[in-house]
Amino acid sequence: MHICLSDGWGGLEMYPARIIPELQRQGWEAHGLALAGSRVAESMAVAGVEPLTTPSRGRALLQAGRILAYLRRHGIDVLHCHKSSDLRLAALLAALRPGLKLFFTDHMGVTRPKKDLYHRWAYGRVTRLFSISEATRQRNLAAFPLPPERIRRLYLGIDLTPYAPRLDEPARETQRRELSVAPGQVAIGLPGRLTDGKGHEVWLEGLALLHERAPGLDWHGVLIGGLTAREGSDEAYVAQLRRRVAELGLEGRVTFAGFRADLPRLFEALDIVCVPSRNEAFGLTVVEAMAAGKAIIGADSGAIPELLEAGSGHLADPQKPLAWADAMAKQGQDAALRARLGQAARQRAETTFAISRHVTALVEEYSGQRNDESLDG
Predict the structure, then answer these.
(1) Is 280 exposed, middle or buried (0-12, 13-18, 19+ CB in 10 A)?
(2) What is the dihedral of CA 134, 137, 142, 147, to 10 degrees?
(3) In the chain, where are the structural domains located?
(4) Which of 174, 243, 271, 313 lies in the 20 to 30 Å Cα band around 374?
(5) 238 alpha-carbon distance from chain centroid
(6) pLDDT tens for residues 210-248?
(7) What is the CATH number of domain 161-352?
(8) Which residues in 16-35 are b (16+ Cβ under 10 Å) and which e?
(9) 2-157+355-366: which CATH topology?
(10) Given this chain, do its domains 2-157+355-366 and 161-352 carry the same CATH topology?
(11) Is the overall model pTM greater than 0.85, yes or no?
């Protein structure tokens, strides 16, 4: 059973629905526990699992008996939770039903020690804690009250199939026109939630410097991400970005595309994908762009350098707009370079970040078959 009692919507909340179909394909019966009416509950249902629901996290604790009865009825012996606040419930269930195996994925990257009495009790019930990158694993080793062998790196994975190019040239041009990208322009995109910390302002400032770094380059910027709180973004921050676009004189040069369910097709419309997040715990957007075979510029911080090995993309300082302008100018002026980077990125995605690889490693952990220190390398 995957437990995710969150009313938000981001990579963490999307995770259970991402892996449920592959878990089922590999022969596992998946179940879910989510907040009633949440996007998480909706996504689980779409993925093929009607989740058990609870009105709130507090009510979930009071309904521990009901949840235990559900676990017994369905013969569930593995719990996997994804928010530290959900660990209270999961640890309680494991304490009340000895034999339950409890797994926890740290999707966010812990920022402070968790070694007080409560955390020692809760994490003491955890069979395995998964770190989604080596960068977060190193922080987890210092922060959590667990021995090193119970903290393991497990890179996230995605279904690569939807990201393979499908559009013919006329369809691709139609897609680009919808984003206000003119024929012959280099489309430079930044996909992801429009919230502070994702580097949007540095990217915009870098775009404003492009006319100096590459005077002959004709380009158009595309911001892809929800514009409302319901779509996972910070509405005040979105308004701030719109003001910044105007201040930098980029009106007409940058499109706010909003939330798009057809992200793989939008990638086809782009020539360069930028991910300037300052401290990404993993960088799912990077992997999606790699799967799409795009030329990528990522922040030289957090886990992103682990993903973009030499030859599969470029890195830039997330604090320096000029570094982003230079990287965008370099890729923007060289179509052959973009093609080489995109091919290398796709190959790396296939060998390292396929959802089947991720779930195979995961179910080997569920069944107790993995004993090596690092799950994938």
Answers:
(1) buried
(2) -130
(3) 2-157+355-366, 161-352
(4) 313
(5) 20
(6) 999 999 999 999 999 999 988 878 899 999 999 999 999
(7) 3.40.50.2000
(8) bbbbbbbbeeeebebbbbbb
(9) Rossmann fold (3.40.50)
(10) yes
(11) yes
